[in-house]
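Quick start: read one record
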Amino acid sequence: MFGVKMAKILYVEDNFDNYKLVEFILTKSGFSVMNAIDGLDAIEKAEMYNPDLILMDINLPNLKGFEAATLLKSKAKTKDIPIVVLTAAYSNEYKVMAEKLGCAGYFTKPIDPLSFSEDIKKILSKQHESNFDDTLTLELSRSLEEKARKMVHIGKELSKVERKFNSIVEAILDPIILIDLNNIVTFVNSAANNYEFIRRYYKKEFDLRSMINDDSLLEKFNKIGYIKNYIIRIEDFIFIGNFVKLENEVLITLKDITELQKIADKQKEIDKMATIGRIASGVIHEINNPLSALKTYIDILPSRVSRSVEKQAVVDDFTDKMKRSLDKIFDLVTNLTFFARKSSEPEININLNTLIKEVLSFAGYDIRRGNVSVNLKFAEDIPLIRGYKSEIEQAILNLLTNASDAVQGRANPTINIKTYSDDGNVYVEVDDNGPGIPEEIQGSIFEPFFSTKDNEKSTGLGLAIVMNVVKKHFGEVKFFTSESGTKFVLSFPKLDKVGKDGKD
């Protein structure tokens, strides 16, 4: 008979709570209890520790309990270790199978804590010899063991890959969000957890409309399965969002560009001030003409009145002329002031024909320098668009000043400005007869700070701002160029329904 205090029990159980309960009961009775978590682990530990008895659960990962028992009975080193089945899945067939395998006992959960230790002692007190010699079953079990070991190895390698992947995902500084088919947020990485508005959606329902507030874009996403580089504004943050449909999930990656946008806004203001500096001489010239006329009227008015019989008629005539000169000055100063103001105004409804005329009113002298002809071909009753007026003004002014620079020195320098619309968009074309854009730089012209001009003449932000402004207004920029000229085409979504402020 075994001395109970010396008896070692190997309990094969993958449920930790079940193991701790049995360990507690057996340890109180003087047994030494160790744990194996699956069938393969049981075989390795049985050979290593040589326990006095093995308690075997049936439903185990990798190798089932009966499979592990078969292998243990087939090995010379472990064949005489008594195996006791302990399972929650009671079945008379299982009990018969346990007897055929030569198992020394069969118990079902939950165990009786008062009698279980005594039952184990009785089993240990008997001599057990293996009479297991089913050659076919042994061979099948060995084959099964080999396959199970391969599966375990693959599982471990997959676990390594998964851990590596998770570490990479957690190291990514941009927010990552996974949404399942029920629109529940199932995963957010550490970077996403830094944003309170994302944290509050974890394990909760998430509506894509909270990020994509464009039904046509959502319809496109449902059709093609992805959206790239979508600008998202949430609370005080600005993100570039990418949305991808996976097999059973939607993956969202966000790039926080809030600080970059602040820098870009400052750069736009710098570029605007540089543009204002450039056109200042033109504005001064435009103001000088009506100022000179006004001064002349003031100088000659007294003599004209004194010599005239119809004094009131002369006063009225001169007053009307002076008023027209003052109105011209006022319009120039007002338009330039509106252009120069900080870009923090609200969105309004905009008529592009009117906006282009206003730009030409204060920048026309600079754009027409060098005898440049500016031809306008505006569509009548052009639909309105919605946007930030000063930003669109700056985008169009940048195109016009670029076109003016391009045609300097050309025969018959010409800029054509055209507006038109279709069912969904309103278009502005700026067409010049300059030398065109060299092929080797065409891919760089929208990059910030890229310029072919002298640094004193350009900030290198002109076309970058055009692209930024148009994208911000959900539009597109295209260009066509050759040796005979360049055409830029801006498109903006048409405002379908005009409210009370439609005359903005």
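The longest helix spans residues 258-307.
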